[in-house]
Amino acid sequence: MSNQFLTAKRIAQEALPILADHLVFPNLIYRDHSDDFAKQGDTIQVRRPNVFDAKSFTDGNEIALQDLNQFPVYVKMDQIADVSVQVSSAEMALSFDDFQRTILEPAILALAEKINEDGLRLAEQVPYWVGTAGQTPSELAPIAEAMRTMDVNKAPQSKRRAVWDPYANVNLLQLNALVDAGQSGSTATLRQSAMGRVYNFENYMSQGVGTHQAGSFANLNDVSAVVSVSNNAVDGATGFTYSVAQLSSDEGSSTGDLKKGDLLLIDGGQYVVIEDCGPAAAGMLDAKLYPAMKADVVDGVVEFVDEVSQAHVMNLAFHERAFAFVTRPLDPGRGVESYTAQAQGLTVRVSFGYDLTTKRQTMSIDTLYGFATLYPELACQILG
User: What is the DSSP string of 97-139?
Assistant: First the structure.
Protein backbone atom coordinates (compact mmCIF):
# COMPACT_ATOMS: atom_id res chain seq x y z
CA MET A 1 0.00 0.00 0.00
CA SER A 2 1.41 3.37 -1.06
CA ASN A 3 2.30 5.90 1.64
CA GLN A 4 -0.02 8.87 1.18
CA PHE A 5 2.48 11.16 2.93
CA LEU A 6 5.46 10.45 0.64
CA THR A 7 4.36 12.54 -2.32
CA ALA A 8 6.68 14.56 -4.55
CA LYS A 9 4.96 17.76 -3.39
CA ARG A 10 5.36 17.02 0.31
CA ILE A 11 8.99 15.97 -0.07
CA ALA A 12 9.90 19.03 -2.17
CA GLN A 13 8.24 21.40 0.28
CA GLU A 14 10.07 19.82 3.21
CA ALA A 15 13.36 19.80 1.30
CA LEU A 16 13.49 23.58 0.79
CA PRO A 17 14.06 24.68 4.41
CA ILE A 18 16.59 21.88 4.89
CA LEU A 19 18.53 23.12 1.85
CA ALA A 20 18.38 26.71 3.10
CA ASP A 21 19.80 25.61 6.45
CA HIS A 22 22.74 23.78 4.88
CA LEU A 23 23.91 26.45 2.43
CA VAL A 24 26.75 28.73 3.47
CA PHE A 25 28.13 30.70 0.50
CA PRO A 26 24.81 31.37 -1.32
CA ASN A 27 23.37 32.76 1.92
CA LEU A 28 26.18 35.32 2.08
CA ILE A 29 25.96 36.81 -1.42
CA TYR A 30 23.50 38.59 -3.70
CA ARG A 31 20.63 36.44 -5.01
CA ASP A 32 18.71 36.62 -8.24
CA HIS A 33 15.54 34.55 -8.51
CA SER A 34 12.34 34.56 -10.51
CA ASP A 35 9.37 32.22 -10.91
CA ASP A 36 10.10 31.65 -14.60
CA PHE A 37 10.92 28.04 -15.41
CA ALA A 38 14.31 27.37 -17.00
CA LYS A 39 16.35 24.42 -18.19
CA GLN A 40 20.01 23.54 -18.02
CA GLY A 41 22.00 25.56 -20.55
CA ASP A 42 19.72 28.60 -20.55
CA THR A 43 21.40 31.99 -20.25
CA ILE A 44 19.93 34.36 -17.68
CA GLN A 45 20.48 38.11 -17.75
CA VAL A 46 21.23 39.47 -14.28
CA ARG A 47 21.50 43.19 -13.59
CA ARG A 48 24.28 44.17 -11.26
CA PRO A 49 23.31 46.02 -8.08
CA ASN A 50 24.47 49.63 -8.37
CA VAL A 51 27.41 50.84 -6.31
CA PHE A 52 27.62 54.58 -5.66
CA ASP A 53 30.04 57.04 -4.02
CA ALA A 54 28.62 59.69 -1.72
CA LYS A 55 29.75 63.13 -2.90
CA SER A 56 30.02 66.39 -0.98
CA PHE A 57 27.54 69.04 -2.10
CA THR A 58 28.23 72.74 -1.78
CA ASP A 59 25.40 75.22 -2.00
CA GLY A 60 25.44 76.96 -5.35
CA ASN A 61 27.25 74.16 -7.19
CA GLU A 62 25.79 71.47 -9.38
CA ILE A 63 25.22 67.94 -8.14
CA ALA A 64 27.57 65.20 -9.38
CA LEU A 65 25.51 62.72 -11.36
CA GLN A 66 26.59 59.08 -11.24
CA ASP A 67 25.86 56.54 -13.95
CA LEU A 68 23.53 53.63 -13.28
CA ASN A 69 25.04 50.25 -14.00
CA GLN A 70 23.68 49.43 -17.45
CA PHE A 71 25.75 46.35 -18.32
CA PRO A 72 24.13 43.11 -17.14
CA VAL A 73 25.86 39.84 -16.38
CA TYR A 74 24.93 36.87 -18.55
CA VAL A 75 24.77 33.77 -16.38
CA LYS A 76 24.65 30.37 -17.99
CA MET A 77 22.43 28.08 -15.96
CA ASP A 78 24.78 25.16 -16.40
CA GLN A 79 24.58 23.60 -12.96
CA ILE A 80 22.04 21.00 -11.89
CA ALA A 81 22.83 19.43 -8.53
CA ASP A 82 21.12 16.04 -8.47
CA VAL A 83 20.72 13.17 -6.06
CA SER A 84 18.86 10.17 -7.50
CA VAL A 85 18.22 7.02 -5.51
CA GLN A 86 16.31 3.79 -5.94
CA VAL A 87 13.47 3.60 -3.45
CA SER A 88 11.90 0.26 -2.71
CA SER A 89 8.48 -0.43 -1.25
CA ALA A 90 10.18 -0.62 2.15
CA GLU A 91 11.46 2.99 1.91
CA MET A 92 8.11 4.16 0.55
CA ALA A 93 6.38 2.61 3.57
CA LEU A 94 8.46 4.63 6.07
CA SER A 95 6.85 7.32 8.17
CA PHE A 96 7.65 10.77 6.87
CA ASP A 97 9.91 11.51 9.86
CA ASP A 98 11.94 8.36 9.24
CA PHE A 99 12.07 9.05 5.49
CA GLN A 100 13.30 12.57 6.15
CA ARG A 101 15.96 11.43 8.61
CA THR A 102 17.35 8.50 6.60
CA ILE A 103 16.95 9.64 2.99
CA LEU A 104 15.85 13.25 2.50
CA GLU A 105 18.26 15.04 4.83
CA PRO A 106 21.40 13.18 3.58
CA ALA A 107 20.34 13.88 -0.01
CA ILE A 108 19.83 17.59 0.63
CA LEU A 109 23.14 17.80 2.49
CA ALA A 110 24.87 16.40 -0.60
CA LEU A 111 23.15 19.02 -2.80
CA ALA A 112 24.21 21.82 -0.44
CA GLU A 113 27.83 20.65 -0.41
CA LYS A 114 27.97 20.70 -4.21
CA ILE A 115 26.35 24.14 -4.43
CA ASN A 116 28.75 25.60 -1.85
CA GLU A 117 31.74 24.11 -3.65
CA ASP A 118 30.63 25.37 -7.07
CA GLY A 119 30.03 28.88 -5.73
CA LEU A 120 33.35 29.17 -3.95
CA ARG A 121 35.15 28.42 -7.25
CA LEU A 122 34.29 32.04 -8.13
CA ALA A 123 37.48 32.89 -6.25
CA GLU A 124 39.29 31.96 -9.49
CA GLN A 125 37.91 35.18 -11.01
CA VAL A 126 39.29 37.44 -8.27
CA PRO A 127 42.64 39.13 -9.10
CA TYR A 128 43.36 40.42 -5.59
CA TRP A 129 45.08 38.32 -2.94
CA VAL A 130 46.98 38.34 0.32
CA GLY A 131 48.94 35.62 2.11
CA THR A 132 51.30 32.99 0.71
CA ALA A 133 50.37 30.09 -1.55
CA GLY A 134 50.84 26.77 0.23
CA GLN A 135 50.86 28.26 3.74
CA THR A 136 47.69 27.89 5.82
CA PRO A 137 46.72 31.19 7.53
CA SER A 138 47.34 31.02 11.26
CA GLU A 139 47.29 34.64 12.39
CA LEU A 140 45.26 37.82 12.06
CA ALA A 141 47.61 39.51 9.59
CA PRO A 142 46.00 38.07 6.41
CA ILE A 143 42.56 39.22 7.59
CA ALA A 144 43.89 42.72 8.21
CA GLU A 145 45.57 42.72 4.78
CA ALA A 146 42.35 41.59 3.12
CA MET A 147 40.53 44.42 4.89
CA ARG A 148 43.11 46.88 3.57
CA THR A 149 42.74 45.53 0.02
CA MET A 150 38.97 45.90 0.13
CA ASP A 151 39.25 49.36 1.70
CA VAL A 152 41.55 50.48 -1.12
CA ASN A 153 39.05 49.08 -3.63
CA LYS A 154 36.25 51.02 -1.86
CA ALA A 155 34.21 48.01 -0.81
CA PRO A 156 31.32 49.02 1.50
CA GLN A 157 32.08 48.54 5.17
CA SER A 158 28.91 46.59 5.91
CA LYS A 159 28.15 43.00 4.82
CA ARG A 160 31.76 41.89 4.55
CA ARG A 161 32.27 38.14 4.94
CA ALA A 162 35.16 35.66 4.85
CA VAL A 163 34.90 31.91 4.21
CA TRP A 164 37.76 29.62 5.29
CA ASP A 165 38.71 26.02 4.63
CA PRO A 166 38.73 23.62 7.64
CA TYR A 167 42.52 23.91 8.18
CA ALA A 168 42.55 27.70 8.34
CA ASN A 169 39.39 27.50 10.44
CA VAL A 170 41.15 25.39 13.09
CA ASN A 171 44.10 27.78 13.23
CA LEU A 172 41.96 30.89 13.44
CA LEU A 173 39.59 29.50 16.04
CA GLN A 174 42.52 29.35 18.45
CA LEU A 175 43.05 33.11 18.21
CA ASN A 176 41.46 35.14 20.97
CA ALA A 177 39.90 37.56 18.49
CA LEU A 178 37.85 34.75 16.94
CA VAL A 179 36.64 32.76 19.92
CA ASP A 180 33.39 34.70 20.16
CA ALA A 181 30.89 33.12 17.78
CA GLY A 182 28.11 35.40 18.89
CA GLN A 183 27.92 37.12 15.50
CA SER A 184 26.25 34.66 13.19
CA GLY A 185 23.97 34.37 10.22
CA SER A 186 20.28 33.69 10.20
CA THR A 187 20.31 29.96 9.38
CA ALA A 188 21.40 26.97 11.43
CA THR A 189 24.38 26.14 9.24
CA LEU A 190 25.58 29.73 9.36
CA ARG A 191 25.37 29.68 13.14
CA GLN A 192 27.35 26.44 13.24
CA SER A 193 29.89 27.69 10.71
CA ALA A 194 30.35 31.19 12.15
CA MET A 195 33.74 31.84 13.71
CA GLY A 196 32.98 35.35 14.91
CA ARG A 197 33.55 38.86 13.63
CA VAL A 198 36.97 40.46 13.37
CA TYR A 199 38.31 43.38 11.35
CA ASN A 200 34.78 44.00 10.07
CA PHE A 201 34.48 40.51 8.54
CA GLU A 202 31.93 37.90 9.55
CA ASN A 203 33.97 34.69 9.39
CA TYR A 204 32.67 31.27 8.38
CA MET A 205 33.99 27.81 7.60
CA SER A 206 33.02 25.69 4.60
CA GLN A 207 34.33 22.37 3.32
CA GLY A 208 33.54 23.75 -0.14
CA VAL A 209 36.55 26.12 -0.17
CA GLY A 210 38.52 24.95 -3.18
CA THR A 211 42.15 24.50 -4.15
CA HIS A 212 43.39 26.03 -7.39
CA GLN A 213 45.84 23.86 -9.34
CA ALA A 214 48.12 26.10 -11.39
CA GLY A 215 49.12 25.56 -14.99
CA SER A 216 52.62 24.24 -15.65
CA PHE A 217 53.81 27.56 -17.14
CA ALA A 218 53.35 29.04 -13.65
CA ASN A 219 56.38 27.16 -12.30
CA LEU A 220 58.77 29.35 -14.30
CA ASN A 221 60.76 32.21 -12.80
CA ASP A 222 62.23 33.66 -16.00
CA VAL A 223 59.10 35.09 -17.62
CA SER A 224 58.58 38.61 -18.95
CA ALA A 225 55.47 40.30 -20.36
CA VAL A 226 54.58 42.59 -23.22
CA VAL A 227 51.15 44.27 -23.20
CA SER A 228 49.63 46.76 -25.60
CA VAL A 229 46.54 48.48 -24.22
CA SER A 230 45.30 48.94 -27.77
CA ASN A 231 44.45 45.24 -27.61
CA ASN A 232 42.29 45.57 -24.50
CA ALA A 233 38.87 44.03 -25.03
CA VAL A 234 35.54 43.59 -23.24
CA ASP A 235 34.35 40.15 -22.27
CA GLY A 236 30.87 39.74 -23.73
CA ALA A 237 29.47 37.71 -20.84
CA THR A 238 30.77 39.67 -17.87
CA GLY A 239 31.34 43.14 -19.27
CA PHE A 240 34.83 43.21 -17.74
CA THR A 241 37.67 44.76 -19.72
CA TYR A 242 40.79 42.61 -19.96
CA SER A 243 44.29 42.86 -21.39
CA VAL A 244 46.15 40.33 -23.51
CA ALA A 245 49.69 39.76 -22.27
CA GLN A 246 52.36 38.08 -24.37
CA LEU A 247 54.37 36.07 -21.88
CA SER A 248 57.76 34.69 -22.79
CA SER A 249 60.29 32.53 -20.98
CA ASP A 250 63.93 33.49 -21.39
CA GLU A 251 64.87 29.85 -21.73
CA GLY A 252 62.42 29.57 -24.61
CA SER A 253 61.75 25.85 -24.35
CA SER A 254 58.64 25.68 -22.17
CA THR A 255 55.48 24.15 -23.61
CA GLY A 256 53.53 24.73 -20.38
CA ASP A 257 50.06 26.19 -20.06
CA LEU A 258 48.15 28.55 -17.78
CA LYS A 259 44.82 27.81 -16.16
CA LYS A 260 41.88 30.09 -15.51
CA GLY A 261 42.48 31.41 -12.01
CA ASP A 262 46.29 31.48 -12.15
CA LEU A 263 47.57 34.52 -10.26
CA LEU A 264 50.55 36.59 -11.33
CA LEU A 265 52.33 39.85 -10.70
CA ILE A 266 53.48 42.05 -13.58
CA ASP A 267 55.77 44.82 -12.41
CA GLY A 268 54.19 44.39 -8.98
CA GLY A 269 50.55 44.66 -10.11
CA GLN A 270 48.13 41.81 -9.33
CA TYR A 271 46.32 40.00 -12.17
CA VAL A 272 44.33 36.82 -12.73
CA VAL A 273 44.18 34.66 -15.87
CA ILE A 274 40.53 34.61 -16.98
CA GLU A 275 40.74 31.83 -19.57
CA ASP A 276 42.77 28.64 -20.00
CA CYS A 277 45.62 29.23 -22.44
CA GLY A 278 48.57 27.38 -23.89
CA PRO A 279 50.48 25.21 -24.43
CA ALA A 280 53.32 27.64 -24.94
CA ALA A 281 55.20 27.59 -28.23
CA ALA A 282 58.95 28.00 -27.78
CA GLY A 283 58.32 29.46 -24.34
CA MET A 284 55.71 32.01 -25.47
CA LEU A 285 51.96 32.24 -24.93
CA ASP A 286 49.21 34.86 -24.85
CA ALA A 287 47.12 35.19 -21.68
CA LYS A 288 43.94 37.14 -21.02
CA LEU A 289 44.37 39.04 -17.77
CA TYR A 290 42.03 40.93 -15.48
CA PRO A 291 41.98 43.76 -14.56
CA ALA A 292 42.88 45.50 -17.80
CA MET A 293 46.08 47.49 -17.83
CA LYS A 294 46.01 51.24 -18.36
CA ALA A 295 49.45 51.59 -19.93
CA ASP A 296 51.61 49.56 -22.27
CA VAL A 297 54.09 47.14 -20.73
CA VAL A 298 57.45 46.35 -22.32
CA ASP A 299 59.59 43.60 -20.81
CA GLY A 300 57.52 43.57 -17.60
CA VAL A 301 58.76 41.40 -14.74
CA VAL A 302 56.39 38.45 -14.18
CA GLU A 303 56.09 36.51 -10.91
CA PHE A 304 53.69 33.59 -10.46
CA VAL A 305 51.99 33.11 -7.10
CA ASP A 306 52.08 29.32 -7.42
CA GLU A 307 55.66 29.01 -8.69
CA VAL A 308 56.76 27.08 -5.59
CA SER A 309 53.60 25.38 -4.33
CA GLN A 310 51.92 24.82 -7.74
CA ALA A 311 48.57 25.30 -5.99
CA HIS A 312 46.82 27.42 -3.40
CA VAL A 313 43.72 27.15 -1.24
CA MET A 314 41.20 29.86 -2.12
CA ASN A 315 39.98 31.22 1.21
CA LEU A 316 37.79 34.14 0.26
CA ALA A 317 36.94 37.53 1.75
CA PHE A 318 34.17 39.46 0.01
CA HIS A 319 31.31 41.90 0.17
CA GLU A 320 27.79 40.59 -0.40
CA ARG A 321 27.57 42.21 -3.84
CA ALA A 322 30.81 40.74 -5.16
CA PHE A 323 28.98 37.61 -6.36
CA ALA A 324 25.50 36.42 -7.29
CA PHE A 325 23.68 33.14 -6.78
CA VAL A 326 21.11 32.73 -9.57
CA THR A 327 18.29 30.20 -9.38
CA ARG A 328 15.33 29.31 -11.54
CA PRO A 329 12.72 26.55 -11.05
CA LEU A 330 12.94 23.44 -13.17
CA ASP A 331 9.85 22.46 -15.11
CA PRO A 332 8.08 19.52 -13.40
CA GLY A 333 8.66 16.37 -15.38
CA ARG A 334 6.02 15.18 -17.80
CA GLY A 335 4.44 11.77 -17.40
CA VAL A 336 5.86 11.22 -13.92
CA GLU A 337 4.97 12.34 -10.44
CA SER A 338 6.97 15.56 -10.10
CA TYR A 339 6.76 18.81 -8.14
CA THR A 340 8.93 21.93 -8.00
CA ALA A 341 8.90 23.92 -4.76
CA GLN A 342 10.34 27.41 -4.48
CA ALA A 343 10.81 29.89 -1.66
CA GLN A 344 13.50 32.16 -0.20
CA GLY A 345 15.23 32.37 -3.58
CA LEU A 346 15.70 28.59 -3.73
CA THR A 347 14.08 25.85 -5.77
CA VAL A 348 13.93 22.08 -5.40
CA ARG A 349 12.32 19.59 -7.77
CA VAL A 350 11.36 16.09 -6.68
CA SER A 351 10.40 13.48 -9.25
CA PHE A 352 9.40 9.83 -9.04
CA GLY A 353 9.86 7.46 -11.95
CA TYR A 354 9.29 3.75 -12.52
CA ASP A 355 11.31 1.61 -14.94
CA LEU A 356 9.24 -1.34 -16.18
CA THR A 357 12.30 -3.14 -17.52
CA THR A 358 13.99 -3.26 -14.11
CA LYS A 359 10.83 -2.93 -12.00
CA ARG A 360 12.53 -0.29 -9.90
CA GLN A 361 11.30 3.06 -8.68
CA THR A 362 13.65 6.04 -8.65
CA MET A 363 13.40 9.31 -6.76
CA SER A 364 15.37 12.31 -8.05
CA ILE A 365 15.93 15.51 -6.11
CA ASP A 366 17.51 18.31 -8.10
CA THR A 367 17.93 22.07 -8.34
CA LEU A 368 19.05 24.41 -11.14
CA TYR A 369 21.41 27.29 -10.44
CA GLY A 370 24.32 29.39 -11.65
CA PHE A 371 26.87 31.72 -10.11
CA ALA A 372 28.29 35.00 -11.37
CA THR A 373 30.99 37.44 -10.36
CA LEU A 374 29.47 40.92 -10.20
CA TYR A 375 32.29 43.06 -8.80
CA PRO A 376 35.72 41.36 -8.46
CA GLU A 377 36.98 44.51 -6.72
CA LEU A 378 34.72 43.69 -3.79
CA ALA A 379 36.58 40.45 -3.03
CA CYS A 380 40.04 39.25 -2.04
CA GLN A 381 41.57 35.78 -1.93
CA ILE A 382 43.39 34.81 1.27
CA LEU A 383 45.84 32.21 0.08
CA GLY A 384 46.44 28.96 1.89
Answer: HHHIIIIIHHHHHHHHHHHHHHHHGGGGG---EES-TT----S
